[in-house]
Amino acid sequence: MRSTHLTPLVTLTTLFAFIGSSVAGSPDPKAVKGVINVHDPSMIKKGNTYYVYTTGGDIGMRTSTDRINWVYAGKAVPWWGTTDLWAPDISLHNDTYWLLYAHPTANTLRTAEIYLATSTSLESGSYTDKGIVIASTESSPYNCIDPSAIQDYEGNWWINFGSWSGGIDLDSRLPIVLINFSIYIFRVDSNGKRISDPKKIAERPSTALEGSTIFKHANKYYLFMSFGNCCPTTTGV
């Protein structure tokens, strides 16, 4: 990635209302209806239809033509059956859609894989399994979950990932082991194959990081992520 620094940008918005609105205009958020029980949504528009991919068992799909009324549209990667898959990320690469998603192993800290499936139509049943992009084990310094793709200003594609239980750091000043939560990034080729080693771009010792996404604007990169615990305490962005 070019040397332009990644600047954290703290903001909150309504996902479904924001997509498609102009920068200068007001989103005017409205309540959504239909099949809206989703977690970790990733949305893309094709023609007049919006597609949302979600966590929960297999990667489920929802579609809408107005971002308000949503219907269930099947499974994106049915070959997994009912396997628990996480945090899909959908993006367009020339004429091919890339669907990244994570497969964590139950009862482990860092054993997980990030997979890629591709489609030219976004429809259920149209995806082709491209296999593992990157994997982590209990001895890895990172955790291969929550992938997100970004194209840099030179046209290169990168995947950022990582979060909960991202690694272990030993702090000589303290008689304890600290969990070091980190976000990593690596470069991929036009087929989604990894061509560089993962590089740490953000960390927050002893505080969970999840769901990172990078946007680019005005010759800078903006890294969004959530931190903190889900429910008993405050969660930040």
UniProtKB/TrEMBL annotation:
InterPro entries on file: GH43_arabinanases (IPR050727), Glyco_hydro_43 (IPR006710), Glyco_hydro_beta-prop_sf (IPR023296)
Pathway participation: Glycan metabolism; L-arabinan degradation
Residues at the active site: 40, 210
Site note Important for catalytic activity, responsible for pKa modulation of the active site Glu and correct orientation of both the proton donor and substrate, residues: 146
GO biological process, one term: carbohydrate metabolic process
Keyword Iron: no
Signal peptide: 1-24
Molecular function via GO: hydrolase activity, hydrolyzing O-glycosyl compounds
Nucleotide-binding listed as a keyword: no
Gene3D superfamilies linked: Glycosyl hydrolase domain, family 43
Ranges that cross the membrane: none
Keywords of the record: Glycosidase, Hydrolase, Signal
Family statement: Belongs to the glycosyl hydrolase 43 family.
Protein name: Endo-1,5-alpha-L-arabinanase A
Source lineage: Eukaryota, Fungi, Fungi incertae sedis, Mucoromycota, Mucoromycotina
